[in-house]
Design goal:
alpha/beta; 5 strands; single chain
Length: about 280
């Protein structure tokens, strides 16, 4: 529970765990997570407006979670508010923002207990030649960061960080060149063009792996594999510490999927770097 006594996003996500939700219901769940501070006090009409769905959809969502209607779900949310409070976190606002990122990393570490799932993602992405990497707007730096290192161990990494009609052209070109999978970074506020690109990628036959902020992110509608890593929202602009860490974990899995090729490529790069005196140390 956060310092204001509001239900935390993690506690809300626990309510949805193991429940098969429709795309519309995932939108509602995501809306509640994004408005965790007020979730327990919103009416069904207010939730419907925030999520951009009908009020009956909110009622069906509550029933899908095992409640007899939205009022019962709201009572459950209020119970979480009362029973989950752990008191105010220590330190100033900046320190609390950093502590929250530490918590995000702890949750990511817990998710990685199932190492087999990440290993399978590594094999999937390593086998795609070329490997498209999508990241638009706020996600563009993460895509570039991942691709910079991935290019040292993968023969053809293609970064897609600009939207528009040219993006679809580049997706088609990647598929024509032999791409079988795409890694996408999908972060708040979820650009419409990013979701359009995911849809285009799937229509083109690519298996989409999405690193996103939540299991109920809009990316789940368009990706075969969703790897969640929470985004920090305690400062003016989001903190992407956990998604960046997860990106490097996925890259490690790609390296592990082809260890001999990885070693050969890294040795070749180090030899070239030494010959050209690229680095001081």
């Amino acid at each position: 529970m956060n310092e204001s006594g509001a239900a935390s996003p993690d506690r809300l996500l626990d309510l949805f765990h193991g429940v098969r939700l429709t795309p519309t219901q995932r939108r509602i769940a995501h809306c509640l997570v994004r408005h965790a501070g007020a979730a327990a006090y919103l009416s069904a009409a207010e939730v419907a407006e925030l999520a951009g769905v009908s009020q009956p959809s909110v009622t069906r969502f509550a029933m899908a979670l095992g409640h007899d209607g939205y009022p019962a779900l709201r009572r459950r949310l209020r119970e979480l508010t009362v029973t989950g409070s752990a008191g105010p976190a220590g330190g100033n606002a900046l320190q609390r923002a950093v502590h929250a990122e530490r918590d995000n990393l702890d949750r990511l570490a817990a998710q990685l207990a199932d190492a087999g799932r990440v290993a399978e993602v590594g094999r999937l992405l390593a086998a795609s030649r070329p490997l498209p990497v999508l990241g638009l707007r706020a996600a563009a730096p993460l895509a570039a960061y991942f691709a910079y290192f991935a290019a040292k161990v993968h023969p053809d990494v293609r970064v897609f960080d600009d939207g528009g009609s040219m993006l679809v052209d580049r997706l088609d070109q990647a598929v024509a060149a032999g791409a079988t999978a795409m890694l996408a970074f999908v972060l708040p506020r979820y650009p419409r063009e990013t979701l359009d690109a995911l849809r285009e990628a799937r229509d083109a036959g690519l298996t989409v792996v999405a690193i996103t902020d939540s299991p109920v992110s809009p990316a789940t509608e368009h990706a075969e594999v969703v790897l969640p890593a929470a985004v920090g929202a305690d400062l003016v602009f989001d903190l992407h510490t956990a998604p960046m860490t997860l990106a490097m974990v996925v890259l490690q899995a790609i390296c592990d999927a082809a260890p001999a090729e990885t070693q050969n490529r890294l040795e070749a790069f180090e030899s070239s770097a030494a010959r050209r005196q690229l680095f001081l140390g």
